[in-house]
Amino acid sequence: MIPLKASEIKGIITNREKGVAFASISVQNTKYGTQADESGYFHLKNIPSGKQNIIISSVGYISKSVQINIQENKSHQLNIEIEETNAQLNEVVVTGTMKETSINESPAPIQILNPTFFRKNPTPSLFESLSMVNGVRPQLNCNVCNTGDIHINGMEGPYTMVMIDGMPIVSALSSVYGLSGIPNSMVERIEVMKGPASTLYGSEAVGGLINVITKNPSKAPKINFDVNTSSYLENNFDISGKTKVGKFDVLLSGNYFLFNKRWDVNNDNFTDITLQNRTSIFNKWSMNRKSNRVFNLAARYIYEDRFGGEMQWQKENRGGSEVYGESIFTKRIEMLGSYQLPIDNQKIILNFSFNQHQQNSVYGNTFYLATQRIAFGQLLWDKKLGKRHDALFGATFRQTFYDDNTPVTQNTDAQNTPDNISLPGIFLQDEISLNQTNKLLVGLRYDYNSKHGGIASPRINWKLSPNKDNIFRLSLGNGYRVVNLFSEDHAALTGSRKVLIKNNLKPERSYNANLDYQHFFSFGNGYGNLQLNGFYTYFSNKIIADYDQNPELVVYDNLKGYGISKGVALNAELILASSWKVFMGGTLMDVYRVDNGLKINQIQTPHFTANYAISYTLPKLQLSIDLTGNFYSPMRLPVVRAYGDTRPEYSPWFGIHNIQATHRFANGLQIYTGIKNFTNFLPQNPIFRPEMPFSEQFDPSYNYAPLQKIRGFVGIRWSIF
């Protein structure tokens, strides 16, 4: 027999775009094999030609088999991504308890999302990316300027707290525009907690919270860039790099988003999507001191020029009454840091942040000029008390300055009196290990609001894990929310409705319950998990914006009755070594208020939502296919019947679906292309009386989906480690 001539294979073994150190690579049923280096790169020599099965394995990962046709005396390239065994169990989270712990040890249910997941449907910002998360829905609130917020389990945006590295950076005024200014280039992972979190994080965390964990400079790629564009001419540029400066690891990332083409698909003479010119720069310095003490300091700057309005609007029409346009200039700076105090045998950490948000907005001929500054400090003492108790003591202080040109910041003599609110607080929690299967977490927070007085928020969490594959969690809590009126409800400014505040608004109170079950399983060459979650929230003193009393008014008042948000959610994840990955989820909910015995469904809140992400990889071609999408049931919409508005009060069933193909090259370069909204769904009649934009009847709040038709996109990304 004539021996087959030999060849070689070069490549890299990765997991979530990071090299898998010392993975084993072997040719099945032969003596040939090698081991990857610490960066995941390998070089396998002297492989017999012909069809060969290449086996990749590593401790903690699912083994993978790839068939490749080896041609004689040639060098072949093979880049393989392998999956962790029950990877979610070992994910590190900080949101549920304010200290690092793994998901299976956390008493609170936390969902982890990383940039690799979001790249299945590339978007220019965090706001759009979150549409892929079950139970989390980005909601556009204005069809002209495309402002939006994040709904968790049906609760409106003001009930969702958005943090960066555990600090309340995006809130109040900045929640409307700040979410679109968080680029994916600065994100290491996102932690989503559905349900009450006021005990640890205070006001705004009633419905849940989103914690954006920024990249660790020491672990980030040396260079990373991602550039993409669409047939709508939406252009997004992401770039980041790291270096070493003395004892510091330094990360610098930048994002530029440009969309300046005016589209009017429905021929109403209004831009379908706002024009945006946005720059975001993020810089983070990190130093690991002795005894694992960490010092981090980061800063971010955002500038955005945003416009939506009549197609013929020009800059010289800004603020005039001849051509309607909504033009918003935003300047924003943020600083945040953490420092572990050098005290032996004690873990005491100081967290601090400051942000300033300046907004110069024009809505038709109505000017809205606002400045917000928030300073925040937090001292945490993480202390183990014996073998069973893991305690956390905290003291916080938050100072909020807010000024605008509306009557909200004027006294009875029409003199300018900016809001200046102090919010000191203390909290404590104790994580008690009752035994190997039961863990109890109890907590209490007390805040003193300089305007509303003292507010207490208790919390209790119980986790039962009878074995490593099954986890039960029960959460009970009491929360509160102090309103930031104009900065939260953008509809009070856009359009032509006037604002009426009936009484001095009292803080809302909520009473929450959340029951969660998670099951992990393995089978053959794959693994998966199922998560079932039930939630219930009761509101008293709920602050509502009533659009129904008078077509010319938005009426704010504390609800005399009560509000309810309840439902159940199911998530499923399935990962096969045969290159299939499936993520699916659905949430069934009922969100309403009861006023004078009458049940009223919450506006723009569907009873059912679902999302999916299905991926298939062809290793030989180094090609992956991603299919993603969402489904929504009908939701109640704001109609203006008094002015003859005949549009349907409820949206139709609809879905937005996307497909993408990604090719990976030998050097780590990736090229991706795809189609968004390939079923070409478009909402109907989004603006009432577009021909009368300066009249009392004009209303742009009838929104339930982006007004973008089917469109293609293409991009290129490269990470160098």
TrEMBL record:
Keywords: Cell outer membrane, Membrane, Receptor, TonB box, Transmembrane, Transmembrane beta strand, Transport. Residues 104-208 form the TonB-dependent receptor plug domain. It is found in: Cell outer membrane. Residues 246-677 form the TonB-dependent receptor-like beta-barrel domain. SUPFAM superfamilies: Carboxypeptidase regulatory domain-like (SSF49464), Porins (SSF56935). PANTHER family: TONB-DEPENDENT OUTER MEMBRANE RECEPTOR (PTHR30069), TONB-DEPENDENT RECEPTOR (PTHR30069:SF57). This is TonB-dependent receptor plug. The lineage of its organism: Bacteria, Pseudomonadati, Bacteroidota, Cytophagia, Cytophagales.
